[in-house]
Amino acid sequence: MIITRQRITIIKNRLPKKTVNEELQWLGDSLGLFNLRDKDKSCFRIFLELIKAAKLGKPLTSDQIAEKLHLSRGTVIHHINKMIESGMIIHQDNIYMTRVDTLTQLVQELRKDLDRAINDMREIAEDIDRWLEL
Fold first, then answer.
1. What is the pLDDT of residue 4?
2. What is d(CA 121, CA 31) in angstroms, rounded to the nearest whole number?
3. Which of 14, 44, 47, 120 has CA atoms 20 to 30 A from the CA of 69?
4. Do both 53 and 106 map to the same domain?
5. Any domain includes 70
6. Is 2 a domain residue?
7. Which domain holds residue 38?
8. Cβ atoms within 10 Å, residue 16
9. Among the listed residues 105, 94, 85, 102, the one whose alpha carbon sits nearest the alpha carbon of residue 60
């Protein structure tokens, strides 16, 4: 998988209560996936469907997701594109799947992405400091 541009969003939220749905919601909120405009929690529901599919080892098409969740294909594609841009979901041959098999692995991969981005920013900052003689 080649990611040419990736948006990494981290939002610090108060830790959730200890139910699976609340923790999944918190994780998605912390990654900037879910927002107040998503009144019917479409993105959250799509995220859950992709997690279930990962557990079964069966990637899904956008049409399958739309049918299961009673959403338009356009809505599914919109939310999936946000998850692809964040590095959580990958698209291959018209199917969508989580980048890795577990949420723990996903957070570890996102951390690696974040570390690479921070290292790139540090290197550029060092170059700029040298050029400006700071």
1. 64
2. 20
3. 14
4. no
5. yes
6. no
7. 11-99
8. 15
9. 94
Q: What is the pLDDT of residues 2-14, one digit of tens each?
A: 556 677 777 677 7
51 and 62 inside one domain: yes
For tokens 């996936």, name the residue: 33
Establish if 46 belongs to a structural domain: yes
* Per-position DSSP letters for 84-96, written without gaps between them: HHHTSEEEETTEE
Nearest to 88 by CA among 69, 107, 71, 63: 107
Q: Is residue 72 situated within a structural domain?
A: yes
Chain segment 70-121, per-residue pLDDT in tens = 999 999 999 999 888 888 899 988 899 988 888 888 889 888 988 998 999 9
Domain count, the chain: 2
CA distances from 73 to 63, 66, 76 (A): 6, 5, 5
